[in-house]
Write a structure and sequence with these properties.
The complex is a heterodimer. By secondary structure, chain A is an all-alpha fold. Chain A is 83% helix and 0% strand. In chain B, a hairpin with a 2-residue loop joins strand 9 and strand 10 (229-234). Chain B is globular, with a radius of gyration of 18 Å. The chains are: A mainly alpha, B alpha/beta. Bound molecules: adenosine-5'-triphosphate and magnesium ion (MG).
Chain lengths: 263, 257
């Protein structure tokens, strides 16, 4: 074999080339995920450990933000409804807002910050200290052990966290409505749930699955492709969060469009 | 010098490299490397920082892909292996990283158990514990089994790294600067460990270093890497006996370090 001459010259410009290479690599990452997901060995223990971590890390924040979103959103909506004397619509208005939009988004953004950054930093530091190479050379598949488990854990945990976040937000809303309009729990529940359709719930679950997958894939990719040095660790954590959030908003727009077409 | 005569079979090469090229962009790191490692032999690769010593052994285990040349390990052409064959080959080649690369979320015991659990799933817990105990005893660190890597000293971490590699009973060992940054006494301990591994487990090794004491006490063959290829190859006296300038260069370099 003769040495191949390599040229440093970018095809278009360094940034543009870099962008397309990244997109290409992320698709490679995703396709590898689907190719290997059903193949043995299954790293069940590591998967459960990751689920526990993800839940553990985000539960306090998810509880707090859930309660506050419910409470504040109710307070902010009351004056406009009061103008028409329609405060009795508050429960159904709030519950629709929570189920359709607030719970999935709030959960996803919080997990992107909390979980995405920690996965990005963890894998990046394993990369720069050569722990990932060490797995590779001892014939352990680091993709299965590190990436698969984390991506699956994110994908499974996000819908669960979203449901929890939505319920807590409804509690927040109920507290405010109960204090101001003296609505009983029974009436609140009845009003809140009559207007929620199966499609609403299904769409939100799909959203949460997609967001979870996005956070997992993006932060694992960033960690795996961290540049050498400690600087790379911070950068991976940071970029994981920014890119996950960016993609989550784009996906939100697309999914809402699709759901509205079905509706 | 070595305390025993190693049993080298010059007829049998376990690693054979011909015309190896590797560059990163415009940085031409390896430019035509040829190397033969015989069964039972310890080759020491000397070279200044940045000459591509780590790159060379990473190509041998398939962590990096060569631009040109052939890399034959135990009769198999490494760059052409598929994932499955590469995995099987890697079980026979132990790689000790320059900085240990211990899994820092696991204890020392778990670090050693991890490769065993993945690669020998049929092994009973008792057998596994026995193997771990044996390896820890061989590297003289039995008491650290429950500690986290962060609690160990640099030298201990390197020795655990060697132990983690030994646990899969490889035929070939690749050491990346096993003694760099350690005090002379710990260096001697590691040199003795490398020799003991060669003696006890009948391994063939490539040892990367810029420490002349390490080279002298562990190497059966010394190879000097400069500007992308080996400029000298032979036993310690052949390589350094005739050329004062080369020794001076290395001694000066050792002092700068
Ligand atoms: N993954 C990589 N990407 C780009 N360049 C690399 C990569 N790995 C190594 N290099 C470059 O290859 C050259 C040789 O690196 P290498 O790590 O092999 O040096 P070394 O001989 O092991 O030095 P040291 O004694 O300091 O460990 C360096 O110039 C380095 O910048
Ligand atoms: Mg090196």
């Amino acid at each position: 074999m003769e040495p191949i001459e390599q040229s440093d010259k970018p095809v278009i410009s360094k940034q543009v080339d870099g962008f397309f290479i990244t997109v290409y690599e992320i698709f490679g990452f995703i396709s590898r995920f689907f190719r290997e997901v059903l193949r043995r060995p299954f790293e069940t223990r590591e998967f459960i450990r990751q689920c526990f971590y993800i839940g553990n890390r985000s539960l306090p924040l998810i509880s707090l933000t859930g309660f506050i979103t419910g409470l504040v959103f109710t307070k902010q909506s009351r004056p406009s409804l009061a103008e028409f004397g329609a405060t009795s619509w508050l429960p159904s208005l709030i519950s629709i807002a929570i189920v359709r939009a607030l719970a999935p988004l709030v959960t996803a953004l919080i997990c992107a910050g909390r979980v995405g950054s920690s996965i990005g930093a963890e894998l990046a530091s394993m990369k720069v200290t050569e722990q990932i190479d060490a797995m590779e050379v001892s014939a352990i598949n680091p993709f299965k052990y590190l990436v698969m488990t984390r991506v699956l854990a994110c994908t499974i945990c996000l819908p669960l966290l979203m449901c929890y976040n939505g319920l807590i937000a409804l509690v927040g809303a109920f507290v405010d409505i109960h204090l101001n309009e003296q609505t009983s729990m029974d009436t609140f529940i009845q009003n809140a749930f009559t207007n929620i359709s199966f499609l609403d719930l299904a769409a939100s679950l799909v959203k949460a699955l997609v967001y979870g997958f996005t956070i997992g894939i993006v932060s694992c990719y960033q960690g795996f492709h961290a540049s050498q040095g400690t600087e790379g660790v911070g950068k991976s954590a940071n970029v994981s969060v920014v890119v996950s959030m960016f993609l989550i908003f784009i996906e939100e727009v697309i999914i809402v469009q699709l759901v509205n077409m079905i509706r | 010098m070595k305390s025993f005569i190693p049993d080298i079979d010059r007829q049998q090469t376990v690693i054979s490299i011909r015309g190896l090229y590797k560059s990163f962009g415009s940085n031409h790191v390896l430019r035509g490397v040829d190397l033969d490692l015989h069964r039972g032999e310890n080759i020491v690769v000397l070279g200044r920082s940045g000459t591509g010593k780590s790159v060379l052994i990473k190509v041998i285990v398939g962590l990096l892909y060569p631009d040109a040349g052939t890399v034959t390990v135990l009769g198999q052409e490494v760059p052409e292996l598929d994932a499955h064959a590469l995995r099987d080959l890697r079980l026979k080649v132990g790689f000790c990283f320059q900085h240990g690369a211990l899994y820092d979320s696991m204890t020392v015991g778990e670090n050693l158990a991890f490769p065993l659990k993945r690669n020998e799933p049929g092994m009973s817990r008792k057998e596994r514990d026995k193997r771990i105990e044996m390896v820890l005893e061989a590297i003289g660190l039995s008491h650290t089994i429950g500690q986290m890597p962060a609690e160990l000293s640099g030298g201990q971490r390197k020795r655990i790294g060697i132990g983690r590699t030994l646990i899969l009973r490889p035929e070939i060992m690749l050491y990346d600067e096993p003694t760099a940054g350690l005090d002379p006494i710990t260096c001697t301990e590691i040199n003795d460990l490398i020799n003991e591994v060669q003696h006890r487990f009948k391994t063939s090794s490539i040892i990367i270093t810029h420490d002349l004491t390490c080279a002298k006490s562990t190497g059966d063959t010394i190879a000097v890497l400069k500007e992308g290829r080996f400029i000298r190859q032979g036993n310690f006296n052949d390589v350094f006996g005739s050329d004062e300038a080369l020794i001076r260069e290395f001694y000066e370099y050792n002092f700068i370090q």
